[in-house]
Amino acid sequence: MDQARSAMSQIFNNEPHSYTRFNLPDNMEGDTSQVEMIQSSDMNEEVGENGDEDHLSHKSNRQPHVAQNFECTTKNLCFMAAAIVFTFVIGYLTGYLVHKNKDLNCSCAPSEDDITHETGAVPFMDWDDVRKLQLNSSNHRAGSPGDEDLGNKVIKKFKEYGMKTWTDEHFVKVQDPPASGYNRIVFKNGSEEHPTGFLSYSASGTARGAVLYAHYGQEEDFQQLKNMNINMNNRVMLIRAGRISFAEKVANAAKVNASAVLIYPDPIDYPIGNDTSLFGHVHMGSGDPYTPGFPSFNHTQFPPVQSSGLPHILAQTITTGMGTKILRQLGGRTQPNGWEGINRLGDESDVITVEVNNVLTEKRINNVFGVIKGFVDADRYVVIGAQRDAWGPGFAASSVGTSVLVELARSISDMVENDGFKPRRSMVFASWSAGEYGSVGATEWLEGYLSSLSMKAVAYINLDGIVTGQNGFKVAASPLLHSLIQNTLKEVTSHLISSSLLSQFGKNNWESAILEPLRMDSAAYPFLAFSGIPSVAFRFHSGSSVSEFFCTTKNLNSVTASQVPQLAVRAGQFAGHIALRLVHDHLLQMDLKKYNQLIRSHVVQINARVKAVQRLQPQLLPKTLTGQWLVMASGSYNRVSNILTADIQNSDLENVEMCRMINDRIMTVERNFLSPYVSPIDSPFRHILLGSGPHTLKALTNHLDALKSASPEANAELFRNKLAQATWTIQACANSLAGDIWSLDNEI
């Protein structure tokens, strides 16, 4: 008892620098459901710019109680004794019932030390045993017998771990290389080349035009060529692989009226040999492009429709040897300053013929699932997924991620079965097929169950391409998860030095050093931008990493110094720590204030550009148009997020219903940033802050730039409509976050 009293005294009388809230161990009782754990320098990270205003003080402001004088008679003593006994009995029964109720409803709370152990040092089986599971099939393209065999092995493992399993079958249309014949290129009067790589969803046919070197094919690369007054109509663009997806390269080339695109791996970026083939897709989207917005279930009847993201120009990959051979023969002007290498851009005489004969086929694919059910909020779940298919060896793209997925399932199942760990929420483990065609399996699942998933899925953790090197670490995620990611980086140790990942890779400014934008070719992207589910993807990488599209075991070992097992373990711990935090804690560790900074940044840019257009092109935007309403909507979100953050700090963690209501409000944020004004067929990635399309705040900024320069593509009326829609999307998100309808008032 003395030790218990001493511990309670320290909890309530000491004032720590910052706090983290956890459940108490089961053997501690009383009104002590909130504990402050000292974590130096975490205050600003946890409470943001409000500083001490959001900090809960456990110092008592009450005056000490002074006993009243009374007559010490036998009668009074009897009454006192009876009162004490009565109070003790009532207190004991109340404590017993509360403790019993905790055991039944909230028994998912191991001690802080247990949680640190569980999330920071998840046990792993021998890596060789894990690798044998995944690498028995030399050919595991989507829909192939090898892909199905691997799926059966995954589901067998899930069943061995005592998990409930199921499969999700889809019939999807994909584009494969010609079964008979070939794709070909002929440069000038040289010999005919037959590349074995291909780009799914390219247009078919033949194109003939002059070669134009376009660096990485980014928008700024084409802008530099435009500034040089170079004619790009009907040119065949020669583009280096890397920096952006194949689909984005082709879409950018189509905007400048190119006739075809050739993509090659430059040896500066990918030291993989002259004859290595590249595979990929050029659908500017995800999922089956022939059922946009709909799931590709069997026998479904939809009108003939195609995704707006399908290209209308030819696209083909070529090898390093083919690309460098063409570059050496190009004439024309010298490339712009800042582009790597010493290359000519090409002139009108550098003619090439490109022929693409890909064929459209239908494939049956299966997604495989296993679930560890939660003990309190079983209908809320964290999804962890990895693709298992690959065009080539795919060691980095699919094998490592699928191995870590299966091992995480085993480890956490073992914690539940043997260590008494009881997660509040469920964990869904997903093995996707057809990931190489543009996250087809994952997107079709989202399309099939969107109304349920957007309400109940807490977050998605992506395990694709998690090891492509060892010298760097990158994370792409929803801003809601940034604080949780930072805390996780502190917990997981590096494979090279005896310190945390944060100390190794983000010592100074972790956000600029580690965070990166979420790429469209990541399976996490449709979860976030299409479904409104907070998502995270991460990877160990090297400066000149071997691309996950064609990586072999040998190549990956060469860029990781044979540290693949150690890196996979760290990757599993990073993903596992995030997942366990999201399924264990009473209140979701999501930082609502992170979006304030992003929204304000866009609002400032838009307001500045509106004023510039009104000054330079007054006939396009009247003076009556201001950014006032957008500023007000931004302010509404800022105020409501601060109020909810304060509610979270003052909440009763033992009130299960209150915790669920707060968590549901938190979960509305991401999906309410999906614009309700655009069709998922035309613009599937509807997120106004992190999505893609004319409805996004970034697109509004670009539209204002076009208006400022009097570009013929600019449309002032369209801009005003999009501005109004974006403004009300932010305001509606704030209204939803405020909670009940009677909580709204003129201040909001």
| Side-by-side strand order of the widest sheet | 1-10-12-11-13-15-14
* Proportion of residues in extended strands: 5-15%
**CATH fold node name of the largest domain:** Aminopeptidase
Mean pLDDT: 83
- Radius of gyration equals 29 Å
Q: Structural class, please?
A: alpha/beta
End-to-end CA span: 50 Å
Please bin the fraction of helical residues: 40-55%
List the helices and strands and how they pair.
Blueprint: H1 2-13, H2 43-47, H3 74-105, H4 112-120, H5 127-134, H6 145-160, E1 164-176, E2 184-187, E3 198-200, E4 205-213, H7 219-227, E5 236-240, H8 246-255, E6 260-264, E7 279-281, E8 314-317, H9 320-328, E9 351-356, E10 359-372, E11 377-387, H10 395-418, E12 425-432, H11 440-448, H12 450-456, E13 457-462, E14 472-477, H13 482-491, H14 501-505, H15 510-514, H16 524-530, E15 535-541, H17 553-560, H18 564-584, H19 594-616, H20 628-649, H21 656-672, H22 697-708, H23 716-737
Parallel strand pairs: 3-7, 4-5, 5-6, 6-8, 11-12, 11-13, 13-15
Antiparallel strand pairs: 1-10, 2-9, 4-9, 10-12, 14-15
